[in-house]
Amino acid sequence: MNTRSPGVLWVVVAVVVVLLLSGARFEASPQTTLQQPYPEPTLPPRPTVESPTDVPTTPPTDVPTGVPTTGPTTVPTAPTAVATVTSRPAAPRRDDDDDSGSRLIDLQLVQTASQTDIAPGDVLVLELIATHAEGNRNAEDVLIFVELPDFLTLQYAETSWGTLTQDGQFVFVTIPFLLPDDEVRMIVVAEANNLPAPDFMHIIGSINSSTRDSDPTNNLSPVPIFSR
What is the pLDDT of residues 177-196, one digit of tens each? Predict the structure, then answer.
């Protein structure tokens, strides 16, 4: 059995005594409060923002002088036409570069008479109908005319298109252009007078144009007249 040395025991006893004395002194000493080395800064009070009292709550009602507040009270109206112009539609453009047969036209004229037997005092009515029968080109400078014999006196004439003119016993209509499929009617009213008349004759109506016609044989239309 090992035995501890007396020096070691005394050291242990001394340590225990020191610890006991230190604990008693710690309990007896009052509790101390740690102080901060620097005082806590105090923040300045936040300023209060007040709404301005001079801000307008409604839009201004005053309008600067000279500034119009509304549009014009009167609206200018469109100019009124002073006359109505009625005219025939313009002729379509020609194809002058085409040298084929389509550039040709075919005018034809048909003349009829109200009667063929004429005696002095009788009234004769001639009707001439000119037609642009074929072709895609316009017929230009068209002339329709008829020559009355001396024993017939012109009483009246009219045309559906063009300018009507009388020159002695000639009655004719000039037309600047005639479109394809167009038709013109010419009426001539004459009275038989007491001048000598042949027993038989033809009154010939005719049509021609400055545009080349593919069939000029139908440009003349005679009607037979017998006198009695």
Answer: 999 999 999 999 999 999 99
Tell me phi and psi for residue 169, to 5 degrees. -90, 0
Q: pTM (2 decimals)? A: 0.56
d(C-alpha 167, C-alpha 171), whole Å: 6
For residue 15, report the phi and psi dihedrals to the nearest 5 degrees.
-65, -40
Edge-to-edge strand ranges of the sheet holding 183-192 = 106-113, 123-134, 183-192, 152-159
Q: Which CATH number goes with the domain that contains 137?
A: 2.60.40.1510
On whether the CB atoms of residues 208 and 143 are closer than 8 A, the answer is: yes
In total, how many domains does the chain have? 1
Instruction: Decide if 144 is inside a domain.
Output: yes
Burial of 140 (0-12, 13-18, 19+ CB in 10 A): middle
130-153 residue pLDDT tens: 999 988 899 999 999 999 999 999
